[in-house]
Please model this.
Amino acid sequence: MSCYRYVRRGGKPCEINMAPLIDMIFILLIFFLVTTSFVREAGIDVNRPQAETAAQSPSPTLQIAVTKDGAVFMEGRAIDIRSIRSKVSTFMDETKDGRILVLADGKSNTQSVINVIDQCRLAGAEKISIAAEQPQ
Model:
């Protein structure tokens, strides 16, 4: 049965006003977008080395992965070592307390990891961590 079949006592048909419902949905959508933290992941699995002192890193972090072959990945895509500086600089401008997390494979070349950290420091990043796992 439709709402229009019923008539209020004043003789006017009742209507359902959808505007407040739509406004409320948009407010909830904006609330969830603002409160969600966006973590940029490296997009590749690496075998992290183990360390007794490994600890959780607070967000927001930008993850940069270095594979055992020396390839560098950021946001799910392989990138050139020279483009790290501009991407990290943009990330540091967007976030107030940005941290960089380098996910280096346990068998990766040390020089590749040092080059990534060097490019991050040249971009202005001060809080750079290397990911490790705690041994079980």
